[in-house]
Write a structure and sequence with these properties.
Strand content: over 45%
Largest sheet: 41 strands, mixed
Number of helices: 4
Radius of gyration: 39 Å
Oligomer: single chain
Shape: elongated
Number of strands: 87
Length: 1017
C-alpha cells in the first residue's frame, strides 16, 4: 500500500497523495526501486535488503506500516532520499512502524550497519519517524559499526494529535473598549484545536499580553491549520504572571474562525483537558560503535533548524547512544545564505505532550548516552533547547553515564538552554564520570520544574560534571521555578557555573526567578567528599526562596563543598527557605569578586523567612579582601524578613578582618543567631550589630544566644536599643569590645547560666536581666577586662519563688576581672531571704544607677500581657501581711523609661483577687501618684483591701490590671508580681527594702484618667 508524504510533524503534506499514488502503481514499483538503487555502487547494491511490509520511492521509505517489515543497509551502501520537483520546500523521509490511517499493528525494523553505510535524507523538513502510530505498533532503528543516518527531524515514538495553529498572536485595545478585568498585569494565553482526533495540546502555542487598564480588551488572532478542525478552545492564566495556571475562557465552534475578543470575564479554573492519545506507538533507536552517528542538520534556506523528539503525543520512545557513537543536532546555517531569520531553535525533547491513557505509568520515554558516546546540540542565532517533560502529564528521562560520555549544548544565541519538567515530569542523571556541558549561554540556562505542573530532577553523581558557561549576564539554573524542582550533587559530582560577563556571574536560584512572579517548591542535596557546587564570575550567587510563595530546603553535608560570592536564604516576601550545612569536612567558601558590586557574604531572611543551620564541624568562610564592597553576614535583612541561624557542634562561620555582620538589620526585620557547643563560633570580623545595621544604626529585633561554650567574636559588638538587641548567654562567650545601648537587653542565661565577656563591656542605658532558679542556680555576667555601667542602666533580678534557702544565701551575679591574673571582683551580689526574694549589694558604677535595681519573682507572663514592676509595701522587706487585720496594704506600680504607670486604670487592679479600696461619695479608688523609688518618675500607689487576699499564699502575689498607653490599642493587660509573706497575726513590719535607698517623692491625689489620657476616654 501507499503511505502518504508527511511534513515535519508527520501529518499529510500539502501536495496530497494522488500524484505519489500514480508513481507507485504496481507496474512502476519495480522500476522505482531500480531507480532508487541505481545511485549506489554496484558492489554495494546487494547489501540493501527488504522484507515484509515496505514501501519505497525516491523521496519516501515506509517500513512495517501495518505489518512486519524490515530494511538493512550495510556493506557501505548508501540510500539517499530527496524531494522531487518543485516547490523547493518539498520534503522527504522515512517512517518505521505504524500507520496513521488504520488501527495499525505495524512492526518496522531498520538497520544501518558498517562503515560508510548510511541513509541521507534531504529537503526543507527532512524527517525520520521511528514508531509512528498505533498502540500496538513498534519501530526499531539500529545504527552500528560506523553506520550513519542524516536528516533534519527525528521522532522516536509518536502518536497523533489534532492539527495545531501555526501562528497565535494577542493585541491590546484602547481604554474604554468594554473590558471587565478584575486585575491588571501580564496574562498568558493558549489555544487548542478540536477535531476528530480530540483536543490538541497547547503547551507550545502560547502568547502573552500586558493588560494595563481594566477597561481594555484583548484581541486574539491565529492561522487556520492545514488539516480540518471543528473548533478551538481559548485558555488564559488565572492571575497576572501565573504562566503555568491555565483557565478556560471560551470555546469556538467554527474551524474557520481566526479571531476572538477577550473582555476579561471570570474564567473557569482547570488546565486544558487535552486528548488521550490512545494511538501512540513505541519507537526504539540504538546507535553504537565508533563512527556510528545520527546527524540532524538544519536547512540553510529558512527551513526547520533540526531537532529530535523522543516520545511525542502519546508515543513512547527509547534512544540509546553507546560505544563512542555520536549524535549531532546542528542548527547553524551558512553565513553566506540570505535566508530569512530563524523562527525557532534546534531542539532535543524527551517526553512531549500527554502520555497515553493506555500506557500511562507503564513506560517513560528515555534517552541514554553511555560508554563514551556523545550528543551535541548546536544552536542557531536563537539558541538551542533541550526539554524533558514538555506538556502536562508528559514524562521524559535522560541519562549520561560513563567516562568519556558527554552531552554538550553549544547555545550560540538566545533561548537557551534546558528545561527539565516543563509542564510534565522530567529527570536527568549525569553519572560515573560523564559530562554535561553548556557553552556560550547568552540568555537563560537550566530550569527544573518550570511551570506550575512541572516536576524536574537533576542528579549529578559518581564523579560526573555539569558545566554551565555563559558570555552574557547571569547564566545559571533555577530549581522550582513555578513547579517542583530537585537537585542532587552526590558521590563526587560537580556542578560548575561560570559567567564571564562583568555584568553578572553564574547563579543558582531556588523557588522562582525574576521572570516567574511567584516561586515553586524545591529541594537539593549536595553530599559527599568531592561533591562540589562552584559558581564563578561577578557577584556569583546562590539564592533560596527567590520569589513569593517559594518554599524548600537545601542540604550540604558529608564533606561537600560550595563556592560562590554570596548566598541568600529567604530572599522574597512570603518565601520560606532553609539551608543545612553539616559535617566536619563540609565547607562553604564565599569570595568577593574584584569587579563585583555585592561583595561577599550571606543573608538569611532577606524579606522572607530563612533558616540556616551549620553544625557538626562544618565551616562557612567569607573572604572579601579582593573586593571593595561590603563583606559579611545579615540575619533578618529587610522589612518583614525573619532570619534564624544556628551554629552548633563545633561548626564555625568565619569572616575576614574587614567583615561586618548584623542580626535584625533593618527596622521591621527579625533576626536570631544561636551559637551553642564547644568550639562553635561566629567571627564577624570588624563589627557585629544586634538590633543594628552593619553601620551600627538602630535596626529591627535582633537576638544573639550563646550557650555551652558557643562564642561570638568581633572587634566591636553592639547591641542597639532602638531596634531591640538582645544577648542571651548560657555558658557562652563574647570576645571584643561590647556596647549595650539604651533599650538593649542583656540576659546572661536563657535558663540560669554564665555570659563571659573577654574585652570590655559598656552599658549606656541597657536593661540587664539576671535569673535565679528554684535550686539556686543563677546567672553570672562575668567581664574579663573593663566594665562600665552608666546611670541609665536598668538591672532586674528575677528569683524563682520556690528558692527559699535555709538561713539565706549570697549570690554573685555581676563580676569583673581586669586581667586573668587579677582577682575576681563582685559588682552585684544578691542576698536571698529564707522566705524568698532578697536584697542586693552593689559596687562601682552600680552604686550610682538612677533606676534602682529590682528583685522580682520569676513568673510566667502570658504573651498577650505586658510585664510591669510592682512593689508591695514600698520601703519594707520582707513584705509581711497579716491576713486577719482589717485595712489595706500599699502596692506601687513602677514607672520605667518604657512604661508609664499612670496609664493603668485603678478600677481594673487586682492583687491575687483583692481589689483597690474605694473611698468618698463617688467611691474613688484609693490611689495616689508618688515617686516611690526615687528615680524621678511618678509611680502609681494604690491601697488594696487586705481582707480580700487569700488565706494562704505561695510567697508571691500577682497583680493584674488594664493599661491605656498612648499610641497603643486600649485595654492592654499588664501583670506584675512581688514577694509576700502572709501570717495569721502581726509578725513585725519587716526590716529593709530590697532597694538600697528609700527616697520618697511628693505625694499627690490620683484622679483617673489623668489629663493626658482624657482625650482617649
Amino acid at each position: 500500500m501507499w503511505y502518504p508524504l508527511c511534513n515535519s510533524l508527520g501529518e499529510p503534506g500539502p501536495r496530497g497523495s494522488a500524484t505519489m499514488r500514480r508513481r507507485l502503481r504496481s507496474s512502476r514499483l519495480a522500476s522505482l526501486l531500480v531507480a532508487l538503487l541505481g545511485t549506489l555502487p554496484v558492489a554495494a547494491q546487494a547489501d540493501i535488503t527488504w522484507c515484509g511490509s515496505s514501501v519505497q520511492s525516491p523521496e519516501f521509505i515506509g517500513v512495517g506500516l501495518d505489518g512486519p517489515g524490515c530494511l538493512t543497509v550495510n556493506g557501505g551502501s548508501i540510500i539517499t532520499l530527496s524531494p522531487i520537483g518543485s516547490p523547493p520546500d518539498h520534503t522527504a523521509g522515512i517512517n518505521i512502524g505504524g500507520n496513521q490511517y488504520a488501527p495499525s499493528e505495524g512492526q518496522g525494523a531498520v538497520t544501518i550497519d558498517g562503515a560508510s553505510s548510511r541513509i541521507d535524507i534531504t529537503g526543507r523538513e527532512a524527517y525520520a519517524n521511528v514508531g509512528r502510530w498505533g498502540t500496538q505498533s513498534t519501530g526499531a532503528l539500529t545504527i552500528t559499526n560506523g553506520g550513519v543516518l542524516k536528516t533534519t527531524i527525528l521522532t522516536v515514538g509518536r502518536g497523533t494529535i489534532s492539527p495545531l495553529p501555526r501562528q497565535f498572536f494577542a493585541a491590546l485595545s484602547g481604554a474604554g473598549a468594554g473590558g471587565v478585568w478584575e486585575k491588571t498585569g501580564n496574562y498568558s494565553y493558549a489555544i487548542t484545536t478540536l477535531s476528530s482526533l480530540g483536543e490538541s495540546e497547547p503547551s507550545s502555542h502560547r502568547t502573552s499580553v500586558w493588560v494595563d487598564d481594566a477597561t481594555k480588551t484583548v484581541t486574539l488572532t491565529w492561522s487556520v491549520p492545514s488539516a480540518p478542525v471543528t473548533g478551538y478552545r481559548i485558555y488564559r492564566s488565572t492571575n497576572p504572571g501565573s504562566y503555568g495556571e491555565a483557565a478556560f475562557v471560551a470555546e469556538i465552534s467554527s474551524g474557520t474562525t481566526t479571531t476572538y475578543v477577550d473582555v476579561g470575564s471570570p474564567t473557569t479554573t482547570g488546565a486544558p483537558p487535552g486528548p488521550d492519545f490512545e494511538n501512540g506507538a513505541t519507537g526504539m533507536l540504538t546507535v553504537s560503535g565508533s563512527g556510528s552517528a545520527i546527524q540532524l542538520a538544519g536547512v540553510d534556506t529558512g527551513g526547520n533548524p533540526g531537532g529530535a523528539t523522543i516520545g511525542y503525543a502519546g508515543g513512547i520512545g527509547h534512544v540509546t547512544l553507546s560505544g563512542n557513537a555520536v549524535m549531532t543536532i546542528d542548527g547553524r546555517r551558512d553565513p553566506a545564505e540570505t535566508a530569512p531569520p530563524a523562527t525557532f531553535s534546534p531542539y532535543l525533547i524527551v517526553g512531549r505532550d500527554r502520555v497515553s491513557q493506555v500506557k500511562a505509568g507503564q513506560d517513560i520515554s528515555s534517552l541514554r548516552i553511555d560508554t563514551g558516546a556523545k550528543l551535541t546540540l548546536t544552536g542557531n542565532d536563537l539558541g538551542g533547547i533541550l526539554m524533558l517533560g514538555l506538556g502536562p502529564r508528559a514524562d521524559g528521562t535522560l541519562t549520561v553515564t560513563g567516562e568519556g560520555s558527554e552531552l554538550r549544548i553549544d547555545a550560540g544565541g538566545l533561548n537557551c538552554c534546558m528545561t527539565i519538567g516543563r509542564e510534565g515530569s522530567g529527570a536527568l542523571t549525569v553519572d560515573a564520570g560523564a559530562r554535561l556541558i553548556f557553552t556560550d549561554i547568552k540568555t537563560g540556562g537550566v530550569s527544573l520544574g518550570h511551570q506550575a505542573t512541572g516536576e524536574g530532577t537533576l542528579s549529578i553523581r559518581g564523579g560526573a560534571t555539569v558545566e554551565i558557561n555563559g558570555s552574557t549576564a547571569w547564566p545559571g539554573m533555577t530549581v522550582g521555578r513555578l513547579g517542583h524542582g530537585r537537585l542532587g550533587i552526590t558521590g563526587g559530582g560537580q556542578l560548575v557555573g561560570t559567567g564571564t560577563s562583568p555584568a553578572g556571574g553564574a547563579f543558582l536560584v531556588f523557588g522562582g526567578n525574576s521572570a516567574s512572579v511567584t516561586g515553586g517548591a524545591f529541594e537539593a542535596l549536595i553530599s559527599g567528599q568531592g561533591s562540589t557546587l562552584s559558581l564563578r564570575g561577578t557577584d556569583a550567587s546562590l539564592v533560596l526562596g527567590r520569589m513569593p510563595g517559594a518554599s524548600g530546603t537545601v542540604t550540604v553535608d558529608d564533606g561537600a563543598a560550595v563556592e560562590a560570592d554570596l548566598f541568600t536564604v529567604g530572599r522574597s516576601a512570603d518565601s520560606s527557605a532553609s539551608m543545612t550545612v553539616s559535617g566536619g569536612d563540609t565547607t562553604i567558601s564565599l569570595t568577593g569578586d574584584p569587579e563585583g558590586t555585592l561583595g561577599a557574604g550571606f543573608t538569611v531572611g532577606a524579606a522572607g523567612t530563612g533558616t540556616l543551620t551549620v553544625d557538626q564541624g562544618a565551616v562557612i568562610t567569607i573572604d572579601g579582601t579582593a573586593t571593595p564592597q561590603p563583606t559579611g553576614v545579615s540575619v533578618g535583612g529587610s522589612v518583614g524578613g525573619t532570619g534564624v541561624v544556628t551554629i552548633s557542634g563545633g561548626a564555625q562561620v568565619l569572616t575576614d578582618a574587614s567583615g561586618r555582620a548584623c542580626i535584625g538589620c533593618t527596622p521591621g526585620s527579625t533576626g536570631t543567631v544561636t551559637v551553642t557547643g564547644a568550639d562553635s563560633l561566629i567571627d564577624a570580623g570588624a563589627f557585629l550589630g544586634v538590633g543594628c545595621d552593619r553601620d551600627g544604626s538602630d535596626g529591627g529585633t535582633g537576638t544573639l544566644a550563646l550557650s555551652e561554650g558557643g562564642t561570638a567574636r568581633a572587634v566591636q559588638i553592639k547591641f542597639c536599643g532602638g531596634g531591640t538587641g538582645t544577648i542571651i548567654g548560657d555558658g557562652g562567650t563574647l570576645i571584643g569590645d561590647v556596647l549595650a545601648a539604651q533599650g538593649a537587653v542583656v540576659s546572661p542565661g536563657s535558663s540560669p547560666g554564665t555570659l563571659s565577656i573577654i574585652g570590655s563591656f559598656t552599658s549606656t542605658g541597657a536593661r540587664i536581666v539576671l535569673e535565679v532558679d528554684a535550686n539556686g542556680n543563677h546567672d553570672v555576667l562575668g567581664v574579663e577586662g573593663t566594665a562600665f555601667f552608666d546611670p541609665g542602666t536598668q538591672i532586674e533580678v528575677r528569683v524563682h519563688p520556690a528558692f527559699r534557702p535555709v538561713g539565706g544565701a549570697w549570690l554573685q551575679l555581676i563580676t569583673v576581672q581586669r586581667t586573668p591574673q587579677d582577682p575576681v571582683q563582685p559588682l552585684l551580689t544578691l542576698k536571698v531571704s529564707e522566705w524568698g526574694g532578697g536584697t542586693v549589694q552593689t559596687e562601682g558604677d552600680l552604686t550610682t544607677l538612677s533606676q534602682p535595681i529590682v528583685v522580682v519573682p520569676d513568673i510566667d507572663i502570658p504573651p498577650t500581657y505586658r510585664a510591669v514592676q510592682i512593689d508591695i509595701k514600698p520601703g519594707v522587706f520582707p513584705n509581711v501581711i497579716t491576713r486577719a487585720s482589717a485595712g489595706t496594704i500599699p502596692v506601687a506600680i513602677i514607672s520605667t523609661p518604657a512604661f508609664d504607670a499612670l496609664t493603668v486604670d485603678p478600677a481594673t487592679i487586682t492583687l491575687d483577687g483583692a481589689a483597690v479600696k474605694l473611698v468618698g461619695k463617688g467611691e474613688r479608688p484609693l490611689c495616689s501618684t508618688q515617686d516611690v523609688n526615687g528615680d524621678g518618675r511618678p509611680d502609681l500607689l494604690c491601697h488594696v483591701l487586705t481582707s480580700q487576699l487569700p488565706a494562704e499564699g505561695d510567697g508571691v502575689a500577682i497583680l493584674d490590671a488594664l493599661a491605656y498607653p498612648l499610641g497603643s490599642p486600649p485595654g492592654i493587660p499588664v501583670r506584675g508580681a512581688d514577694f509576700i509573706r502572709i501570717v495569721p497575726k502581726e509578725d513585725g513590719a519587716g526590716e529593709r527594702h530590697h532597694w538600697r535607698w528609700h527616697r520618697r517623692g511628693a505625694r499627690g491625689v490620683f484622679a483617673w484618667p489623668p489629663p493626658r489620657l482624657q482625650s482617649m476616654r
